[in-house]
Amino acid sequence: MGYTILSIASTSFFADYGAHVRIWEETRALQKLGHRIVIATYHNGDNMPGFEIRRSWDVPWVKRTMVGASHHKMYLDVALSWRALRVAMEIKPDLIHAHIHESALIGSVLSRMFKVPLVFDYQGSLTAEMLDHGFLKRDGMFYKPFHWLEDKINRTADAVLTSSFNAANMLRDDWKFPAERLYTVPDSVNTDRFKPFDSSAEWHTERERIRSELGIPAGRKIVAYLGLLAAYQGTNVLLEAAQIIRQQRDDVHFLIMGYPDVRSYLALAESLGVADIVTMPGRILYKDAHAYLALGDVAVAPKMSATEGAGKIPNYMAVGLPVITFDTPVSHEILGDAGVYAKFGDAQSLADEILGLIDNPERRHNLAQTVRTRAVNEHSWELAARQIEAIYERVLAKRAGNPLPEFPTSLQREQGS
């Protein structure tokens, strides 16, 4: 049976980065299972073919994509609340699926109004994100009120979906969230789109064309990064690692793809003396991401947040790129013994691990095969969509006072598998 689902996304959907990719791929996979998903989101963002997107009223002075915490979000969320209400009145959803805490707050009100379940796709702690972006200080006067609000928002949901077991453990142990309403649907990847490049002449020509357009000199090994450019994403530390490597050799090139603040990071690369071994092309469209990632010899995911997921890592894995990341629970959860781990936040350690992998082609080859296999077997969006569908069935049954259907064993994913 297909459900009608109101999806609320308090962000500028669609933009080409991790949280949006999760929403896009979840929606696409659920549509394939026969569900109707209508997305209520901010006024700006890219429209995606085949998606029902309903936008809040236009705010002409806000054209840029909203990334992370922002003062603008206060009134943008008011506008989104009105749009979500109108959409709910129109489509009469069977349930509400909220992405990001502000969406869950809006969804909690609509859930009570329309007497339908709320499923919250939890992508990280609200207060931790505000700490990462400098909007809160742990010893500041606003920390406890926001911590309280986050807890209240979490508890309004009939089910909370986390993108990692680490986040689920944190919610259960630190926030005392009820385990029976907690589910983990790990970040996944479209393994048909993201795959290793083949050896055909056509693909080799395309690969060389992109490399030439980017101006990457021949003979250099490429360290690839694709994601947001921000301190909490580890961009600063990655450039510091590039500086360390540049002082030793000039045959390693850093392809750092993403946005915002490209100019600021280009200036930082210049000040660190690494501009000649760093290429920053800016925003890469998601539809092209696999082709650009395929240029890499290794990939890096130096995220500095201990609470958020790491959606870029499954993409790296599916392309067959060995992954160097900081030593965090989420990274271990996704990669296991197939990851290469640097000391958390340590530029020297990151540089050492990059060079160690660059200089060991046999290890690179073995890791490439392992991560690709793991991506296909454990991180497909088809599996994720069936998990979400089963969770929908359970929350609807509970609301109706019916016995909860068993969560199929075939859909369960073990932590650290």
TrEMBL record:
Cross-referenced InterPro entries: Glyco_trans_1 (IPR001296), Glyco_trans_4-like_N (IPR028098), Glycosyltransferase_grp1 (IPR050194)
Pfam families in alphabetical order: Glyco_trans_4_4 (PF13579), Glycos_transf_1 (PF00534)
Chain ranges of the Glycosyltransferase subfamily 4-like N-terminal domain: 18-186
Stretches assigned to the Glycosyl transferase family domain: 207-372
Alphabetized CDD domains for the sequence: GT4_WbuB-like
Gene3D superfamilies: Glycogen Phosphorylase B
Name of the protein: D-inositol-3-phosphate glycosyltransferase
The species this protein was found in: Herpetosiphon gulosus
